[in-house]
């Protein structure tokens, strides 16, 4: 999935590479700055959840993500750390040109 993300600054592109095996969900979110592994991923019907783990500048953060498939798209909600409001993103599958 190609994911345009705008959070705390200018828009950036990210690739969310998810893999499902049964109820388990694994993968990585890849940006031009950092790769964030998916952990604790679980799929329940059309709903799923996982945690993105980030290590930057000697700090570790975890960002819980919930999502669901809706009309051929994926909607995710990220709960950023530090009391920031949740961020909702609609994902689309990348095209061959991307």
In short:
The chain is an all-beta fold and 98 residues long.
Describe the structure.
This protein has no helices and eight strands. It is mostly beta strands. Strands 1-2-3-4-5-6-7-8 form an eight-stranded antiparallel β-sheet, with no helix packed on it. The protein is globular. Residues 1-9 have low confidence and may be disordered.
Question: Topology, please?
Answer:
Layout (H helix, E strand, L loop, with lengths): L1 E5 L4 E11 L2 E8 L3 E10 L2 E10 L2 E12 L2 E6 L8 E5 L7
Antiparallel strand pairs: 1-2, 2-3, 3-4, 4-5, 5-6, 6-7, 7-8
Shape: globular
Radius of gyration: 13 Å
- Run of helices and strands: EEEEEEEE
| Biggest sheet layout | 8 strands, antiparallel
Distance between the termini: 10 Å
Give the count of helical stretches.
Answer: 0
The helix fraction, in percent, is under 10%
Point out poorly predicted stretches: 1-9
- Give the rounded overall mean pLDDT: 81
Structural class: mainly beta
Strand order of the largest sheet: 1-2-3-4-5-6-7-8
- Beta percentage is over 45%
Number of strands: 8
């Amino acid at each position: 999935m190609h994911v345009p993300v705008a959070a705390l600054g200018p828009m950036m592109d990210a690739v969310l590479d998810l893999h499902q095996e049964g109820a388990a969900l694994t993968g990585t979110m890849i940006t031009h700055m950092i790769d964030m592994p998916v952990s604790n991923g679980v799929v329940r019907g059309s709903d799923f959840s996982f945690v993105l783990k980030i290590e930057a500048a000697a700090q570790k953060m975890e960002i819980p993500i919930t999502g669901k498939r809706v009309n051929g798209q994926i909607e995710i909600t990220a709960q950023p750390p530090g009391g920031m409001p949740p961020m909702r993103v609609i994902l689309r599958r990348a095209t061959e040109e991307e």
